[in-house]
């Protein structure tokens, strides 16, 4: 094969290609780097170009390239005593856009992963209803269904960071969040099928796993936007995410999104389950605890650069990117600071802007190579601003674990490495 054939698409000879590359690289501050003349990756034909590749059906269920092997969920061993009641984290620093791939959605289990044959799964509706009902998966798939993109955030996300910077990577500080498109039946339709009595004010979803997760949800929310979901990103839920059925409670803390959903009881008052009394409450300085703090307030984090995604290209064009979300609705603005919160620039939101979903933001800067203290601050359509950690501590004290939506700081050093620090 001649050199001209290698560069066929642009009809350039090898010499003019090299010249073009060098010329682009010579422009100060340009993102196009100068490539060494004679780079064999340009001048030599490579194996993947010379030989036929694998055919169709070599990978009946597609998986990422072997070069993406580092893009995985990770846990922090010392955080929990056992893996069955534990957590792992979404690799936010590796992702872009707003959708989390199914295999990368963080997992939080209280009694391990229930492995359920959908043919054996049942959903019962009982309590203050006209007719108690039991549905099979097949029954549920005959109700009108909807497709909705929502984030799910565990109330404990960033819980380790209340008193200062702890974990070195946004995967660990903010990775208890994911965002997928759910397919499911509005809970309203299922409750209406059973007929809710006028005294009914609450519902209690229950999981079929070893923890039998149970939470109280007010009827208004149940009838508003909750879904009984069986698909995520178009395919069946993953076992980790509650296969074959989970509750979707948009904008509210992840704990209420009961996985392996087997029963919904209808009642006239909350049940005061363990996960809404001893856990998932916020202990204040006064010794009192905030309870039923369901909504996940506006929050954001810069995912790159971040400790696991250092700057490797030196000074010049630098893409600062991150995600923002709010349980109250859409994100309308994200500001980014590179000097620890003294000055702010409004970031560019890109991609769909959907209520109670992740939003992607970018700030494209020309990095002069000096130290940066990068922060991001989100605002939602109701005008709620993400607070600084000091503002949060002034309001809630230092005993809290849950609902930390304070502003995160990354220290980018001159050599491009990044560290979790606190500036508040
Ligand atoms: N549902 C059941 N049945 N069992 C559980 O352990 N964990 C809850 C919730 N639903 C849990 C559950 C918690 S605390 C969270 S944050 C979310 O599921 C996590 O959902 P994910 O594993 O799909 O990320
Ligand atoms: Co949780």
From TrEMBL:
Ranges of residues in domain Oxidoreductase molybdopterin-binding: 110-271
Residue span(s) of domain Moybdenum cofactor oxidoreductase dimerisation: 292-408
Pfam families associated with the record: Mo-co_dimer (PF03404), Oxidored_molyb (PF00174)
SUPFAM superfamilies per the UniProt record, alphabetical: E set domains (SSF81296), Oxidoreductase molybdopterin-binding domain (SSF56524)
Cofactor(s), by name: Mo-molybdopterin
Keywords: Metal-binding, Molybdenum, Oxidoreductase, Signal
Signal sequence residues: 1-36
Keyword Lipid biosynthesis listed: no
Keyword Signal: yes
GO molecular function: heme binding; molybdenum ion binding; molybdopterin cofactor binding; sulfite oxidase activity
GO BP terms, alphabetized: sulfur compound metabolic process
NCBIfam families with a match to the protein in the record: sulfite_DH_soxC (TIGR04555)
Protein name, per record: Sulfane dehydrogenase subunit SoxC
Source organism of the structure: Roseibium marinum
């Amino acid at each position: 094969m001649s050199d001209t054939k290698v560069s066929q698409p642009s009809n350039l000879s090898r010499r003019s290609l090299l010249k073009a590359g060098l010329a682009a690289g010579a422009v100060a501050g340009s993102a196009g780097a100068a490539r060494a003349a004679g780079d064999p990756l340009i001048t030599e034909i490579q194996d993947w170009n010379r030989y036929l590749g694998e055919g169709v059906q070599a990978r009946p269920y597609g998986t990422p390239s072997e070069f993406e092997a580092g893009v995985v969920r990770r846990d922090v061993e010392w955080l929990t005593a056992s893996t069955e009641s534990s957590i792992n984290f979404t690799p936010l620093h590796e992702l872009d856009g707003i959708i989390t791939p199914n295999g990368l959605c963080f997992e939080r289990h209280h009694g391990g992963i229930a492995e359920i044959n959908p043919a054996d799964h049942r959903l019962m509706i009982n309590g203050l209803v006209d007719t108690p009902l039991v549905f099979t998966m097949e029954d549920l798939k005959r109700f009108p269904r909807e497709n909705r993109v929502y984030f799910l955030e565990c109330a404990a996300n960033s819980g380790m960071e209340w008193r200062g910077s702890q974990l070195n990577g946004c995967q660990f500080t903010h990775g208890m969040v994911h965002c997928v498109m759910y397919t499911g039946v509005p809970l309203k339709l299922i409750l209406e099928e059973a007929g809710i009595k006028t005294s009914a004010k609450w519902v209690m979803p229950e999981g079929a796993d070893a923890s039998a997760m149970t939470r109280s949800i007010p009827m208004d929310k149940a009838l508003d936007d909750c879904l009984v979901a069986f698909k995520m990103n178009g395919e069946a839920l993953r076992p980790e995410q509650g296969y074959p059925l989970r509750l979707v409670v948009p904008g509210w803390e992840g704990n209420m999104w009961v996985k392996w959903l087997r029963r919904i009881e209808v009642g006239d008052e909350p049940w005061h389950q363990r996960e809404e009394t001893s856990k998932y409450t916020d202990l204040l300085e006064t010794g009192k605890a905030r309870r039923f703090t369901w909504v996940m307030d506006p929050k954001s984090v810069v995912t790159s650069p971040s400790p696991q995604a250092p700057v490797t290209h030196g000074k010049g064009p630098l893409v600062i990117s991150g995600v923002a979300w709010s349980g109250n609705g859409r994100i309308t603005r994200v500001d980014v600071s590179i000097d620890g919160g003294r000055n702010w620039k409004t970031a560019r939101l890109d991609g769909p802007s959907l209520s109670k979903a992740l939003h992607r933001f970018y700030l494209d800067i020309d990095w002069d190579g000096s130290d940066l203290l990068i922060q991001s601050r989100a605002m939602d359509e109701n005008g709620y601003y993400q607070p600084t950690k000091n503002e949060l501590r002034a309001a809630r004290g230092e005993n809290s674990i849950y609902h930390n939506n304070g502003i995160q700081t990354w220290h980018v050093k001159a050599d491009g490495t990044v560290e979790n620090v606190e500036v508040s």
